[in-house]
Write a structure and sequence with these properties.
heterodimer, A: 361 residues, mainly alpha, two-stranded antiparallel ribbon, 1% strand, disordered C terminus, B: 439 residues, alpha/beta, 4-stranded parallel sheet, 15 helices, 38% helix, globular
Amino acid sequence: MVTANLRLGRLIRPTLSRHLLLALGAAVVLVAISAQIGAYDDYNLTAVAIFAVAAAGLTLLTGLNGQLSLGHGALMAVGAYTASLLLRDHQLPVVVVLLIAVLTTGIIGIVFGYAAARLRGPYLAGATLTLAVALPQLATRYKSIFGGDAGLTVPPSAPPVWLGADFPPERWLAWIALAAAVVTMVLLANLLHSSVGRSFIAVRDNEAAAALAGIDVARTQVLAFVISAACAGLAGALFGYWSGVTAPAGFGLGLSLQLITAIVIGGLGSLAGAIWGSIVLVFVPALTSGMASSLNVPSSVANNLPLAIYGAILVIAMLVAPHGIQGALKRLLALARARWGHSSASEKKGVMDWDDPAPNP
Amino acid sequence: MKSRIESSASGMRGIAIVCLTGLLAACGTSTADNSGTNTASAPGITATDITIGSTQPLTGPAAPGYSEIAPASNAYFVYLNQHGGVFGRKILYQYLDDGYNPTNTASQTRKLILETKVFAMFSSLGTPTHLAVVDYINSEKVPDLFVSSGCNCWNNVSKYPNTFGWQPDYTIEGKVLGQYIKQNLSGKKVGYFYQNDEFGLDGVKGLDDQLGASSVPSASRQNYVPTNTNVGPQIAALQASGAQVVVSYTIPAFTALALLTAAKLGYHPTWVVSNVGSDITTLTGLLTTFSKGAVGKQLLGGMVTDTYLPLVGDSSNPWITLFKGIHDQIIPGLPWDGNVLYGEAQAYTLAQAFKAAGRNPTRSSFVKSLESTKLSGGPGLAPLGFASDNHLGYLGVQVAIIAADGTEATNGPVYTSSDSGPISQYSGSASSPPSNGIP
């Protein structure tokens, strides 16, 4: 028993302290960056952090547990509407609002998780697609509660007074979102390195084998769905603060597909990939709309060009780097190591990882 | 004033001086400082130009028709800039697509204010979309000018001191349309078909004010949301309710859907359509597309609507000559229709406002000037309501009727009103534009 505990401690502690150290480093760098850049860049940084939270949750579900969800945009809507409804009549601290949003969405996640655990492949995709299409309609149907198409406005979270009167509210929101993202990443990274994370992967790879090894497949799937939904809820509540409005059009099927895009482009199953994908989601559309407006084409073409270019970039990206940005980076690293002859173990690992979308937080 | 401007069309400096004298003559009480040189007096204003921004539905459900408004405003600014601009400054207009999605409006507005650093927001389109950002724009103290929506939400001086409407609010419009129905279609059963948001509900408020809320039973009150294009159940319900007159507070795509659905059901009431959803060119295009060429503008015959600008097809009107000329020269690729007229007329009002605000305005002095200077002599049929306690735009409308051949003619006088006050006939006469076309 004692030796077992010792072994467990040896296994966990380096991981935990490595993750905490990484998180601390990331937090310091991000705060430094946010203080240097302008208000609009802070606003975009906030968007990256929000998408990263949602994408990290989704990559855990889809990449590591093998459940495809097309409904995460709707789960974000649950978080956003929870925050908006709370803030409509009460003045609550941001942390409380975020926690309640996480809880609410987590509970919705349990319900859908149970349904999802019974479904496989395209049926699961179809069921979650229903969620994405139907849930935002509730806002239009019950206009007096959810504000219809115009939605509910979300009052901004004012920076605390000790930061000074001139502290930009965009930077304050960026700090909140970045803190939420860092905490989420640490928690998920630790989870993935625990037995729970390994059981997620075992269920994804072969349900029968996992069941034979003593893993409760359905329970594992529900758990993955709940954790993933909670992440989406957190991201949704932050999204409400970020955009200042919670309206059904903001949480359409497009958002769910964007999240899928983020995790695939970033590298399926990897938390770092979720971050890369979020960066792509926020900055590439801005780039493409700039490209479209610099071309001299009729307005009916120019108006639709950003989306077309965005699509083309995604197609090319998947052709060039089928394992996403994180996969490509790992491959480059492995090639570099092979070339300049560093540690042979990691060289081998890098090459072998090519076809294995295993966790690499 | 007209002849003085004519004589000075040669140089920017000359125009600036004439503008100055014209302004002082027009409003001796104005405190605007027009002397000296151009300075970077506010964010978005440099010595040589003024940058303004807007969010517009260039794509999405509201794009048909409305996507022409911003290019049309821009065409007028190009024309203005070619003729010396305002106090020698060029107006640079940056309009971004929000797809009529409030969430996109929120991020695009922040881009314009935080990154582009526009002096003011101008003509941002849509009720649900602009409601998403009106708090933010006012918290940033950015002038929020001439919102392209007739919601009376923009007329809230204490809550939104920087926001100004432009087109008549939907309640005033509803009252004038209601009065027309009461006087000309009396005894007929009336039904409503409206967008289920502030746009439709404000219109219904005005209609009920005139027709009496109890005279239209709930079965004759049908609504839609722009995300659901199936209007069959609602139109069938109106038909079943026996409504002989249907007042339609709809965006163009839904006016067309309603007309087609009704035609398919063999239902032919008298349609009374809000100005917003009645542009003939836009509707003809939509009807032809939706019906794959089976029908076109013949469905528009007999439609009652209203206008607050000269009629698009009235080629004898000097405003139409001016604006159509600018259209033909700068944006010939767009159809000449009510949306283009709207965008150009709005841009003209903005040029008037910049001229009235003086050479080097700040954001707050600009807002103050808009509240204290009467912007008269513009293209509108009714006066603008701007005052320190009123941020309404045009205060009235004139009823217009579309004939079977697709031409439109006004009917009766221009009526003005307010949300709660009585309707009165407007006695002022129409103005004509200065000969060089800039205020």
